[in-house]
Amino acid sequence: SPPRYGVFEKTKMAIERKEGLDRFTHGYKDFGVMMEDGRVRCMEWIPNARAVYLKGEFNNWNLIPYHEVGFGKWELFIPANRDGSCPVEHCSELKIVIETKDNQTIERISPWAKYVVQCDHNQGFKWKFWNPPSSQKFQITHTRPRKPDRLRIYEAHIGIASESCEISTYRYFTSNILPRIRDQGYNSLLLMAVVEHSYYPSWGYQVTNYISASSRYGTPEEFKELVDTAHGMGIYVMLDVMHGEASKNVLDGLNMFDGTNTCYFADGPQGFNNQHDTRVFDYKKWETLRFLMSQLRYYVNEFRVDGFRFNGLSTMIFHEPSKYGWSFSQTRDYQHYFGRQMRTEGLAYLMLMNDMLHNFYPNLITIAEDVQGMPALSRPVREGGLGFDYILCKDATNLFNEMRDEEWDMHFIRQMLEENRHAEKKIMFTENHEQNEVGRMTLSRKLIGDSPMSESQQMTPQLDRGLSLYKMSRLFTHAFAGQGFLNFIGNEFGHPHWVELPSSSNNDNYQFARRQFHLADNQQMRYKYLNRFDRAVNKTEERFGWLKSNQAVVTRTHEGDKVMVFERAGLIFVFNFHPTKSYPDYKIPVRQCGRYDKSNILYKILLDTDDNCFGGHSRNQANVEFHSKNEHFENSPNSMMIYLPSRSGLVLAQSNLVDGY
Question: How far is residue 312's CA from residue 245's CA, in Å, rounded to a whole number?
């Protein structure tokens, strides 16, 4: 067995033998400050402590000592009030006071704190004891949706979801955005920046409080309501998590929790990611493993989250991520991924985490951030893989964002997409949140720019080109290579602006930290066309299921014509990327043979990027029929003549499947 698999097996067996994996990964039930039958029970792991105390508003900030129970763990029981009520009031402030072995006295927030609040924007947190009365607890009303067999993901950030210049809320998202996601045909929601972080502009990647759902947007009960409402709409809910690195904050984060540089983190230079100014976890430590895996189970059990996307994997996989994780292009030279540059303990942790989650929750999905071609990311642990269900793949992003369409090489596109490892499931996207960050050019901005989007203004050549390519690129990415498709909030209608979260560098400006959904709803604006097309693509995939079918088969690639044709899920996808040439009688291959008693099959247009309801010119008639013939062409048994307009994409289906659709 590879060393990583051996470390995984050894770690898993040790946990099972000493505590049991189920108990071990329910750390949030044993650690932190909890109410039990009226009394309060407290437990912390503080290996560098010689004394530990709890203080808070509940006792006028007087110190109550913990007692040591071994292995760096400290325990405290506070009896119930005489009337049986909890001695610590709901939402009252708490602090842990630690006397360290080197005679420091420090104050900290428990790593297991379930609710922390920020008094001032981007400042430190205060720990609030979360124990609402029954009347304030949200009551679950919906069952979880079934695990999707393919993913149409809506990636969103709660804070930017409203049109107002403010941080949006869980309740606003529940009432206003969830219905949009459902109506657009997305079956999955991926929420960013829910796990608590003190620095808002970090997009949630500098986590301070791993067990706390961010209070910026509301309370834990309101987040539960969001997830439950999504479930009622049939939407599968996933969260972003960071298990590779954490915020360097000391007073309200994990860093130096016990007064040392180690505790949950690696010692020495390996404990720091200087590029991100963050701390790096030590996966050899028992309590680090408990803490990280328990965080996942907390969100699954308490908030009923359905899955996770793991970011920052390069830090977990490579000893020097800046050298290996971000500079290698995808390659078949596998020596890059097997050698001393790999973090064996980090790899073993990912295997252990995925193995645990999939054993306890068979319907749960884990997604890996694309790590430059790392092999076996999404193969089962039993095969020696890391165990993720999907990889987030950036190939299409690089294609559509880095060169003009006139420069796109049809054969290169085909080769790039066909060379993907087909045995590993991928989620494709034309752009995600990274392309929407300030300083980057969104696809909408690149293609459409400042073109007039009002229907009262004349269509310009730049706008006509931009709308066409925006639709074509999204359809192509959606249909060709992946088993999932991801859209970032607002991009479904070509949101005109990037995202710039408020910070000191922009004087806390919220102008670009919001999504202007009225642009899609305004029938006098051309954004409606992109919004309609996005919905049509999702609804068409929902019916025909190309994301769950086999890899697309390319039947024709012609560089001179700028045409690519492929088949998937019984449909024919035809793309003409030529900026000016339309082809009145263009011959394309057809692999489908149809019934044996027919010499030809009738095809109709199922989806047309050039349809006027999507802002196109409707150069093909709506109900036009194309006849396939039993004439061999391009290694296919049949062929068909179609009208193929310039800069357009067609989805063709057998006419009996289109009628009534």
Answer: 7
pLDDT, tens digit, 9 for 90 and up, residues 586-616: 999 999 764 444 557 899 999 999 999 999 9
CA-CA distance, 31 to 20, in Å (whole number)?
Answer: 16
Split at pLDDT 50, 70, 90, the class of 23 is: very high
Coil, helix or strand for 651? strand
**Separation of alpha carbons 381 and 1, rounded Å:** 12
Pairing of strands 195-197, 207-213: antiparallel
- Going from the C-alpha of 530 to that of each of 152, 496, 497, the distances in angstroms are 17, 12, 15
Tell me the whole-structure pTM to 2 decimals: 0.95
Here the contacts of 258-264 (C-beta below 8 Å, separation 24 or greater) are: 258/46, 258/47, 258/48, 258/49, 258/98, 258/100, 259/48, 259/49, 259/98, 259/100, 259/102, 259/104, 259/106, 260/47, 260/48, 260/100, 263/47, 263/48, 264/111, 264/288, 264/291
Confidence tier at 2 by pLDDT (50, 70, 90): low
User: How does pLDDT run across 570-590, given as a tens digit for each residue?
Assistant: 999 999 999 999 999 999 999
Q: Which domains does the chain have, with CATH numbers?
A: 4-129 (2.60.40.10), 151-544 (3.20.20.80), 553-660 (2.60.40.1180)
- CB atoms under 10 Å from CB of 492, counted, come to 26
Handedness of CA 129, 131, 136, 141 (dihedral sign): positive
* Average pLDDT score over residue span 266-290: 93
Q: Where does the pLDDT of residue 437 fall: very low under 50, low under 70, confident under 90, or very high at 90 and above?
A: low
Which H/E stretch holds residue 26?
none
Closest CA to 111 of 12, 216, 254, 9: 254
- At 346, phi and psi to the nearest 5? -65, -45
